[in-house]
Automatic annotation (TrEMBL):
Enzyme Commission number, as recorded: 2.3.2.31
Coiled-coil segments on the chain, per record: none
UniProt superkingdom: Eukaryota
Alphabetized Gene3D superfamilies for the sequence: 1.20.120.1750, Zinc/RING finger domain, C3HC4 (zinc finger)
CDD domains found in the cross-reference section: BRcat_RBR_ANKIB1, Rcat_RBR_ARI1-like, RING-HC_RBR_TRIAD1
Protein name, UniProt field: RBR-type E3 ubiquitin transferase
Enzyme class per UniProt: transferase
InterPro entries associated with the record: Ariadne, E3_UB_ligase_RBR, IBR_dom, TRIAD_supradom, Znf_RING, Znf_RING/FYVE/PHD
Single Gene Ontology MF annotation: ubiquitin protein ligase activity
Catalytic activity: [E2 ubiquitin-conjugating enzyme]-S-ubiquitinyl-L-cysteine + [acceptor protein]-L-lysine = [E2 ubiquitin-conjugating enzyme]-L-cysteine + [acceptor protein]-N(6)-ubiquitinyl-L-lysine
Organism: Eragrostis curvula (weeping love grass)
Lineage of the organism: Eukaryota, Viridiplantae, Streptophyta, Embryophyta, Tracheophyta
Pathway: Protein modification; protein ubiquitination
Length: 591
């Protein structure tokens, strides 16, 4: 940190240089030469900043900064996802410095001015770019309360540029130039008065300290604040630095704390313009960037919140516990051990675990004549039931499916996961297979698709419960459209459900059995039977096709929700885009 402080003090002395330039300019009655300006920028930002500018704004806009700071050439291109980053206490400084450097280089302004502008725009660089487009550099800076030295009236008029000595307008002392400080606005006061002003401001929690002159909007130079405070109130200087760092987390719409509990100590920064997105912190926690709840797409934040509130309602849970699945033939309670939802009772009866209805033993779902149970049928609720009970029955329909797919996810993650990993290792090391076939990526990918689509399915029931339950206000004129969209959605959900079960079964057959995996450490790899080449070819073909289908169906469901269903609601809602591999993995930012 010591070297950083020195660095900041460097800016401070540099500002004094700039003042001298100002005097020189006044005497010569000419603007500083452009080359001088270009050097100045180079000194501040360095090559790294320019690289970051290109990186963060990749494709969005490319600024080419010419030696003359007032002329920018802007090229527009398509937007691209910059990727998310995980920020720790150690890398917070770096993260903030990146954004500061970007803006300092883009606009050729000083660090405290860049910070004021960024705080004004809640650290959204794309917001600054838009604003730049609309207003131009001068007006954008003025609107954010930033006073530039190069065009402040006092400095250019020269009326109060101190020569030799200066009088402080607070304590009315006449002091030598090395005991006074001038801010961007040209207002000059003695260092003692400034120090007390900074001390009071930091004490009251301010990170953007304004000039002492009445009604002057200029933000004081950070380097000056730090250096003066450090001399008399070192604790306050430290607190000021902490405020500045924390602003990056508190005033920043692109950064949020990872909501993991216990807290992992990281904050996540997402790419420009991403609000409805899901990210995975390096600690393993996946969350919705908009509402900071656990990832929940394709269910919108508001619905997810309602669903969770309802789910913890003890009355409902009691009712559901009393209504667990029992065999349609022998009526004994059924326990499920795998992820698959075609279950066989001890008595030999096959049933669909989702609805409890009897089915044939054929697993290929399409061959079970007319078996379809993802829709809630109002008529089956029966006329004799009172409304409350009917509502509960409707809720149970959705809640059951939500929980069962969630349970399948857990099994497919915890038990099938290691089995799939083992099969991948076998495939990659099987010397009996032709070299080109010693690859298990397709299997890993398919398993990931399965996990993601299980969650999509599970959450789709939470969404459907509210979307079609009449509880959310829909546009009255769109009732017919809602009916059509509901059918489309339920068809998609049904197809997705069938193919997910199918994929689950194929993967389960291809990976070693669960009990073998549990004591894998004791079983040498050679003892687990290898797959004959023909079998690998067949399984790969089936798996890849199914995984592709599942991916397409998930994508279609997200599209249906975002484009067909959500626009029918009075309250606007949005969902994160579908990502076949799950939430974007935030990369740890180097300190
Ligand atoms: Zn004074
Ligand atoms: Zn001022
Ligand atoms: Zn975390
Ligand atoms: Zn959310
Ligand atoms: Zn039975
Ligand atoms: Zn069923
Ligand atoms: Zn299928």
């Amino acid at each position: 940190m010591a070297s950083d402080d020195e660095d900041e003090c460097g800016y401070f002395y540099d500002d004094e240089d700039a003042d001298e330039d100002g005097v020189a300019a006044f005497e010569d009655d000419a603007a500083p030469p452009p080359e001088r300006r270009a050097d100045y920028t180079g000194f501040r930002g360095g090559g790294i900043g320019a690289g970051i500018a290109a990186d963060r704004l990749c494709g969005l806009r490319i600024f080419v900064c010419t030696p003359n700071p007032s002329s920018f050439q802007i090229r527009k291109g398509g937007r691209c996802y910059a990727g998310s980053a995980a920020i720790t206490q150690e890398s917070l400084y770096t993260a903030q410095k990146q954004d500061l450097s970007t803006v300092m280089n883009l606009l050729n302004i000083k660090q405290h001015q860049a910070r004021a502008l960024l705080i004004h725009h809640r650290w959204k660089i794309d917001g600054i770019c838009d604003c730049f487009d609309r207003k131009g550099r001068e007006r954008m800076l003025r609107d954010a309360g930033i006073v530039l030295q190069e065009n402040n009236s006092l400095a250019s008029g020269g009326s109060r540029i101190p020569v030799g000595s200066a009088k402080c307008n607070v304590c009315f002392e006449e002091l030598p130039l090395n005991s006074v400080s001038t801010m961007d606005c040209g207002h000059c006061f003695c260092n003692d008065c400034w120090t007390e002003h900074f001390n009071t401001s930091v004490k009251s929690g301010k990170k953007q300290i304004q000039c002492m002159e009445v009604k002057c909007p200029a933000i004081c130079d950070e380097g000056t604040v730090r250096c003066l405070l450090f001399g008399k109130y070192p604790e306050m200087a430290k607190r000021f630095d902490r405020f500045l760092l924390e602003s990056y987390l508190e005033d920043n719409d692109s950064v949020k704390w990872c909501p993991s509990a216990p807290h992992c100590g990281r904050a996540i920064r997402v790419g420009a313009g991403e609000r409805y997105c899901e990210v995975e912190c390096p600690c393993g926690f996946s969350f919705c960037f908009n509402c900071a709840a656990q990832a929940h797409s394709p269910c919108p934040c508001i619905i997810w919140d309602k669903w969770n509130a309802k789910n913890t309602d003890s009355e409902n849970i009691k009712w559901i516990l009393n209504n667990t699945k029992s065999c349609p033939k022998c009526f004994k309670p059924i326990e499920k051990d795998g992820g698959c939802n075609l279950v066989r009772c001890k008595c030999g009866q096959y049933l669909c675990y989702l609805c409890g209805g009897p089915t044939g033993q054929e697993h290929t779902w399409s061959s079970i004549a007319g078996h379809s149970c993802n829709r809630f049928k109002e008529e089956t609720a029966g006329k004799s039931l009172d409304t409350k009970r009917q509502q509960l029955q409707r809720y149970t329909h959705y809640c059951d499916r939500f929980k069962i797919h969630g349970g399948s996810y857990k099994v497919e993650m915890e038990k099938m996961g290691p089995a799939v990993a083992q099969r991948v290792r076998l495939l990659e090391s099987d010397l009996n297979l032709p070299f080109a076939m010693r690859d298990g990526d397709w299997l890993t990918r398919a398993h990931r698709r399965l996990l993601v689509s299980r969650q999509v399915l599970s959450r789709s029931y939470a969404f459907a419960f509210y979307m079609f339950g009449g509880e959310l206000r829909t546009r009255p004129a769109d009732q017919a459209t809602l009916g059509v969209a509901k059918n489309l959605f339920e068809d998609q959900q049904e197809r997705l459900e069938h193919h997910v079960e199918h994929l689950s079964k194929v993967l389960n057959a291809g990976a070693p059995a669960v009990h073998q995996v549990e004591n894998l450490s004791k079983v040498p790899v050679a003892h687990v039977p290898a797959m004959p080449e023909a079998e690998v070819v067949r399984m790969k073909q089936e798996t890849v096709t199914l995984a592709k289908t599942v991916e397409t169906l998930c994508g279609e469901m997200y599209k249906c929700i975002q484009d067909e269903l959500l626009p029918l609601l009075v309250e606007p809602m949005s969902i994160a885009a579908y990502r076949p591999d799950g939430p974007d993995k935030a990369k740890e930012l180097a300190a």
